[in-house]
Structures are given as structure tokens and as C-alpha cells.
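Duplicate of #3305? Posting structure anyway:
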């Protein structure tokens, strides 16, 4: 017995080692502030283990992950493992599945690795992701990679602004069009006339559409692995596997390789049947594994161009002489607006209704393997048809139609079915993004039951793309590949299009489902997919309400001119608005004439709100009650009655003539003092300042500055 003891111990030791150590893969991540300078300005960013992006966490399928996440900052943070299937209490979303990670706190995440592929992680707190809190995850399959390659590289794409992200959101909330001006996508009549698109713009304004852009924000840089330009060494003839992760907060990218087509071998971490594409639109929060082959000696550019055409980041592969990827044509913003938001769609070539199939409920599309079922009676069906038919354009949509699962991805047939229609809605001018017309604070749950096959019909009624991401599940994207529909965790829903996804409800409790444009999610476009047959943990029940905040944002716009001052200070959330409006004139009058209005507005929708308040002038003080309504051609109208029974109607309109110059007019009629009007122009200097000149019917002409905050 004694004789065999050491051997026995050794055996036990080997067993324990392989069980306790070989399987368990540990990482330590420290989050702290870091000053970075990417475009000539020192910015206080947030870094993981001192770097942006954070580290690449590598695992093998079957490992057990143990990740310590230490918060060295003075604000709370969080980390979510994007695309990873794990117990919901490890998902990391503050107030949904976890409490926030407080300053100084270390949270240990532990979960088995049940999948393989390219994934990522990021903060789910506030707008921290915009400041650098993201990193990559690479999981090797048990049986090794399906597709061989000579090199394997992770490419993390992101967008970068020198501005404080909270200030970016406040600026968007204030209705400022500064970002359009900054990146040269400002809509104006002169520009429209030059492109022969005046009628388009008129029609759009008749339909009360606001000028819009593909992306809300003007970025200072686009980055690959934290740099504007990246170099990957490779020899001629080598096959390079690029694991692309779009960690941008508000930017879709077109990917194109100077050395020929790229081969998609995996999407959102799951292998697909390899397919070649020339130009690939990559949605926010997606991952794609691509194979590129270096054709000859040379440094071939793989360019990631921001969808709005405002910039790009370059990954050079190889060495020697640089060979550049072709330019992606910039979006035609004027035409795009009339083509209902689809720059990608060549609507002109299909303007005839005759070309559209009459029965949209069973539309058969070219090149598709099966009939696609569409939600009935929805005009969006047409749009979806066009989307897929235009996949070959110069500004292609996501390559979903080409993605085909390796094996069948069908859901168990025996399961009960549930269909949930989710309309993606928004008010661009007030920057409110919602689902079914409500932001998450008003309506937070999508209730499902364990064991169901759940189908989400995502109908985008806005003019922007929305990358919708579901935590904790992979869903089938119904794309015409029938039983071989690809499995994904994030899906693009293009403007005015419909996208259908389905998944088996085989998890429990609550999972976040949201638009992955960071600012859209923060503005309300999010829900919790909740398993109604499972009880929520007590500690989560307590903190859940903290998730739903309908934040208030301040903004002010006013003038200081030689003859008068006017303006409005606003404090508003999604449905309510408190405002102070003033007009004070001292020219052409015996003594200073002032008119101040304090009002509370309640919004019903983009077009209508009612208000009540008080009106104080140098002659009286009265209660007021009225409504504001947006008329065709985007004319603002106000109808109001005061406590003396006097009635007033006011119409206001502004026209942007050039990038920086606009005119505006305001006409007022009331039963007491009769009419009053003003006409003026302004020239934008900076984000906060314009030159302005106005003629006012009571105070005459004058000039000065307009300031905005
Ligand atoms: Cu969105």
C-alpha cells in the first residue's frame, strides 16, 4: 500500500490539475481613467488595463471563465459579455441582471464557455462605451477552426469624439444641427438646388419630415484597435483571418479590401457557409470573421468607412507599397430623404408601383431559397422587398440575405408560438427613441414564457438604422434562407424596413433587448425580455426601478441684439417641457417693452402638444392655455387663449439657405393688440454662436448675436 502511495497522489494531482486549472481561465481587468490624445486634444478617457480597446480575452470552448473586474474610477461602472451565452446573473447589465460595480469594487464573473467564435465586452453604464470601455473575446472551438488561415487577427472598430459624451447627448436633445454642419451634411436649399433636388426637399417638408442624417454625431476619428491607421504584417499569398468587431457607439462601417473580395466565414461568432462579398456593411455591435488573401507583395488597405461618409479607418495588410481600397460613394442626402431614408436603395429605378408584387404577405424574392412570410397589411413589406433587391448597390445593406447557416437552425416544432410586434419609433428633433411609441421608462417589459418559439417583428418607422441586440440568446434572422437562416445576436433594421427574428425561449428571467446605438438606447429604445413564469431575484427586484429614468435635459437659445433680446430656456424630458420665453424690446418704444411667458407643455406626439402657463408683460399678467401643432412644410403653429378671453394665433418657420445661413419669420395675430411679426436671418459661427439680424414690427431693425447652449 505504502509503495503505491506516491503514484496514487500523482494521479490525484494530475486529475485535480486538469479539472481545477486547465479548464479555468482567469483574467483580471482593471478599469481606470486614462488621458489619451488621438486628434491633438488631451481627453480623459476610460481604459481597461490601461488600453483602448481593452485586452483580448482568449478561451477554448469548454473552459470555465473567471474574470475579476476592478473599478478604480470614482463612478460606478459595469461590464457586459456581448454575445456570450451565460447564466443571466453574469450578464453584467446594471439594474437588469446585476447591481452596478461601485467605485473601488471588484466583481468576479464566472461562467462556463459553451460556444466558440469572436465576441466582445463593453460597459453598459451611461455613455462609458463612447469613452473606450470595450474589449474583445476570442473562443477557439473544441475541434479547432473550421476554416484554416495563416494568420488570425482581432480588429476592434470604434468611433471617437473629443467631446464629452454626455454633452453630445444633451446637444442632440437640444435639437442642434451642429453635428451636421461639422461634418458637412447640413441640409439646405442651395445645396438641394445645386443637386436638382429642390422638389424632393419641398415634398419632404410638406410631409413634415425633418432633415436627417445617417448618423447623429460628427466624430473626430474612426479607429481600428484604437488607432486611425493599423498595420498587419503578412506575406503574399497568405490567408489572413480578421475578426472584426464593431464596437462603435453610433457608426456602421462599410468594409472593403484593396486586394479583392472578402470571404465571410462567421457572423456574430457563429460560422456560416463561406460567402464572398466586395463591400460589406457592418452593423454596430456585430462581429464578422473574414478571410482575406494577400494577392502579391504590397500593403493592401482594408478600409472601414463610416456609413455617413464622414471618415474612415485603415487596416493595411502586408508590407511594401500601399494599395488603397476604393472610395465608398457618399450618401446623397437630398435624394435619400425623399426615398424615405434609404440611400442604399435606388428608388428611382423602381419608382413604379407596378413592379411591386401586389400580395406582400407571400412575396417571393429573386435568388432566395424559400418564400418569405411577411406580416400582413403592412406597407413596410414593400420596403423590405426593396431592401433585399438592392443588396448589390454601391452602398449595400447588411449581407444578411447571403448568410446561410452551416446546419439547420430551425426551432423545435412542438413549442407554442408567440409573435411580438415591435415598432421602432422616434422623434429625431427632440432626440427621443422608443419602441411602440414609448421609451423604456414608460413601458419596460416584453413578456415571454419559457419553452415558446418567440418571433419578433421589428418594424422600423424611423429614418435611421437601428442595430437591435438581444442578450442571452441567438435568434434566427428570417432572411430567405429557410431552414438555414443564420443565427445572430444583433440585427440591423434599416430605415422604414421590417426585420423578423425568432428564437427559442430557453433561458429564464430577464434579458436586455435594445438598440445598440448607445445614444438611442440611452434615449429610451430598450426593453427587458422577461420570462413571466420565472420569479425575479429579490435583490434585482429592488434595483430594477433605477434603470428607468426619463432624464431631464436643459437647453437655451437666445439673442442679444441692438434693438431687442428674445429667446427660450427649456428643461424637458420625453413627455414634459418647462419653458421660459422672453421678448424684450427698447427701440421705437417709449419705455422698454417686455413679454415673458412661463409654460408647462405636455407632448402627445411629434406634432402636437398642449400647454398652460402665465404671461407677464409690462401691461398685464395673465394665465394662458393653448396648443402647439406642426403644420405641413414644418411650420410651427401656436393657438392660445388667455384668462381675459383674448385669443392669439402664431406661425413660425425657418429655412436653411446655405450650410451656415438661414432665414426665419414669425407672424402673430391676437384679438387685443392685433398683428406683430418679425423677419430675420442668421449666420452660424460655432456650435454655440450665430450672428443674427432681425426686423421686428414694433422695435424696428437691429443686429447682434444668437447664443445656444
Ligand atoms: Cu437606434
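Output from current build:
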Amino acid at each position: 500500500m505504502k509503495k503505491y502511495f506516491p503514484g496514487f497522489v500523482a494521479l490525484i494531482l494530475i486529475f485535480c490539475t486538469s479539472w481545477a486549472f486547465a479548464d479555468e481561465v482567469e483574467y483580471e481587468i482593471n478599469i481606470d481613467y486614462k488621458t489619451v490624445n488621438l486628434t491633438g486634444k488631451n481627453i480623459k478617457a476610460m481604459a481597461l488595463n490601461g488600453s483602448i480597446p481593452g485586452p483580448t480575452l482568449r478561451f477554448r470552448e469548454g473552459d470555465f471563465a473567471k474574470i475579476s473586474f476592478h473599478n478604480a474610477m470614482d463612478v460606478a461602472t459595469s461590464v457586459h459579455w456581448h454575445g456570450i451565452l451565460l447564466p443571466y446573473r453574469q450578464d453584467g447589465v446594471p439594474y437588469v441582471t446585476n447591481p452596478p460595480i461601485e467605485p473601488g469594487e471588484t466583481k468576479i464573473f464566472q461562467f462556463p464557455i459553451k460556444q466558440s467564435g469572436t465576441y466582445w465586452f463593453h460597459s453598459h453604464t451611461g455613455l462609458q462605451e463612447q469613452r473606450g470601455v470595450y474589449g474583445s473575446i476570442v473562443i477557439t472551438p473544441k475541434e479547432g477552426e473550421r476554416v484554416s488561415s495563416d494568420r488570425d487577427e482581432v480588429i476592434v472598430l470604434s468611433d471617437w469624439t473629443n467631446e464629452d459624451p454626455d454633452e453630445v447627448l444633451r446637444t442632440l436633445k437640444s435639437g442642434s444641427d451642429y453635428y451636421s454642419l461639422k461634418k458637412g451634411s447640413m441640409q439646405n436649399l442651395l445645396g438641394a438646388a445645386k443637386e436638382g433636388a429642390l422638389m424632393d426637399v419641398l415634398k419632404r417638408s410638406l410631409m413634415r419630415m425633418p432633415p436627417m442624417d445617417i448618423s447623429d454625431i460628427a466624430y473626430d476619428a474612426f479607429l481600428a484597435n484604437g488607432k486611425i491607421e493599423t498595420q498587419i504584417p503578412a506575406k503574399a499569398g497568405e490567408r489572413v483571418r480578421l475578426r472584426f468587431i464593431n464596437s462603435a457607439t453610433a457608426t456602421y462601417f462599410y468594409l472593403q479590401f484593396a486586394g479583392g473580395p472578402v470571404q465571410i466565414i462567421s457572423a456574430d461568432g457563429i460560422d456560416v457557409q463561406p460567402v464572398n462579398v466586395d463591400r460589406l456593411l457592418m452593423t454596430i455591435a456585430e462581429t464578422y470573421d473574414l478571410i482575406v488573401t494577400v494577392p502579391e507583395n504590397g500593403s493592401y488597405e482594408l478600409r472601414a468607412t463610416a456609413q455617413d461618409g464622414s471618415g474612415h479607418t485603415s487596416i493595411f495588410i502586408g508590407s511594401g507599397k500601399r494599395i488603397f481600397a476604393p472610395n465608398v460613394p457618399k450618401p446623397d442626402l437630398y435624394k435619400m430623404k425623399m426615398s424615405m431614408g434609404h440611400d442604399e436603395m435606388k428608388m428611382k429605378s423602381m419608382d413604379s408601383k407596378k413592379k411591386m408584387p401586389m400580395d406582400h404577405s407571400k412575396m417571393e424574392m429573386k435568388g432566395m431559397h424559400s418564400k418569405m412570410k411577411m406580416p400582413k397589411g403592412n406597407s413596410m413589406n414593400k420596403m423590405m422587398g426593396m431592401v433585399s433587391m438592392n443588396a448589390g448597390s454601391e452602398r449595400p445593406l447588411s449581407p444578411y440575405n447571403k448568410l446561410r447557416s452551416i446546419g439547420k437552425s430551425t426551432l423545435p416544432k412542438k413549442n407554442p408560438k408567440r409573435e411580438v410586434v415591435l415598432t421602432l419609433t422616434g422623434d429625431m428633433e427632440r432626440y427621443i427613441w422608443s419602441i411602440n411609441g414609448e421609451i423604456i421608462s414608460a413601458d419596460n417589459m416584453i413578456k415571454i414564457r419559457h419553452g415558446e418559439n418567440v418571433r419578433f417583428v421589428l418594424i422600423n418607422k424611423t429614418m435611421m438604422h437601428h442595430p437591435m441586440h438581444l442578450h442571452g440568446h441567438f435568434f434566427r434572422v428570417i432572411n430567405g434562407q429557410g431552414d438555414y437562416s443564420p443565427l445572430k445576436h444583433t440585427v440591423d433594421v434599416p430605415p422604414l424596413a421590417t426585420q423578423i427574428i425568432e428564437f427559442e425561449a430557453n433561458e429564464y428571467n430577464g434579458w436586455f433587448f435594445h438598440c445598440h446605438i448607445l445614444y438611442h438606447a440611452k434615449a429610451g429604445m430598450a426593453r427587458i425580455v422577461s420570462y413571466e413564469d420565472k420569479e425575479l431575484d429579490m435583490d434585482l427586484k429592488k434595483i430594477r426601478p433605477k434603470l428607468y429614468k426619463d432624464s431631464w435635459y436643459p437647453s437655451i437659445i437666445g439673442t442679444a441684439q441692438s434693438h431687442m433680446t428674445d429667446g427660450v430656456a427649456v428643461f424637458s424630458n420625453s413627455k414634459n417641457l418647462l419653458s421660459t420665453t422672453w421678448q424684450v424690446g427698447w427701440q421705437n418704444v417709449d419705455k422698454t417693452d417686455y413679454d415673458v411667458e412661463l409654460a408647462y407643455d405636455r407632448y402627445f406626439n411629434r406634432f402636437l402638444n398642449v400647454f398652460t402657463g402665465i404671461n407677464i408683460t409690462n401691461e398685464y399678467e395673465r394665465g394662458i392655455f393653448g396648443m402647439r401643432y406642426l403644420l405641413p412644410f414644418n411650420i410651427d403653429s401656436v393657438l392660445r387663449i388667455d384668462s381675459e378671453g383674448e385669443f392669439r394665433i402664431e406661425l413660425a418657420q425657418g429655412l436653411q439657405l446655405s450650410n451656415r445661413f438661414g432665414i426665419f419669420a414669425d407672424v402673430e395675430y391676437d384679438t387685443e393688440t392685433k398683428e406683430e411679426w418679425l423677419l430675420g436671418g442668421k449666420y452660424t459661427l460655432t456650435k454655440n454662436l450665430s450672428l443674427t439680424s432681425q426686423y421686428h414690427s414694433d422695435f424696428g431693425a437691429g443686429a447682434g448675436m444668437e447664443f445656444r447652449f
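Confirmed duplicate; merging threads. Residues 433, 466, 515, 517, 520, 525 surround copper (II) ion (CB under 6 Å). The longest helix spans residues 5-22.
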